[in-house]
Amino acid sequence: MDKRRRKQAKTSNCCSEEVSSIEWEFINMSEQEEDLIHRMYKLVGDRWALIAGRIPGRKAEEIERFWIMRHGEVFANRRKELKR
């Protein structure tokens, strides 16, 4: 098997199990972290790695997930339901 086929096999195996975004656990951020994420997003957009570099102990994936959960329509509806 050549290198291309091995890469394709690895890629197809890793992506076959998708995780629904609804199953994500909510990420707790401090007010300072949230404020910094909002300000950085206004400056640099969705460059999550750049934003994560300004917040010690946070990964780019974690910040992106936080942003999606905070600003996504699906999660907004879910938060409304939980508040009732």
Automatic annotation (TrEMBL):
Gene Ontology CC entries for this record: nucleus
Keyword Glycoprotein carried by entry: no
GO biological process assignments: anatomical structure morphogenesis; cell differentiation; plant epidermis development; regulation of DNA-templated transcription; system development
Protein name: Myb-like domain-containing protein
Keyword Mitochondrion: no
Pfam families (UniProt xref): Myb_DNA-binding (PF00249)
Molecular functions (GO terms): transcription cis-regulatory region binding
UniProt-annotated location(s): Nucleus
Key words, A-Z: Developmental protein, DNA-binding, Nucleus, Transcription, Transcription regulation
Species of origin: Acer negundo (Box elder)
InterPro entries registered for this protein in UniProt: Homeodomain-like_sf (IPR009057), Myb_TF_plants (IPR015495), SANT/Myb (IPR001005)
Domain spans labelled Myb-like: 25-73
PANTHER family named among the record's database cross-references: TRANSCRIPTION FACTOR CPC (PTHR47998:SF12), TRANSCRIPTION FACTOR MYB51-LIKE ISOFORM X1 (PTHR47998)
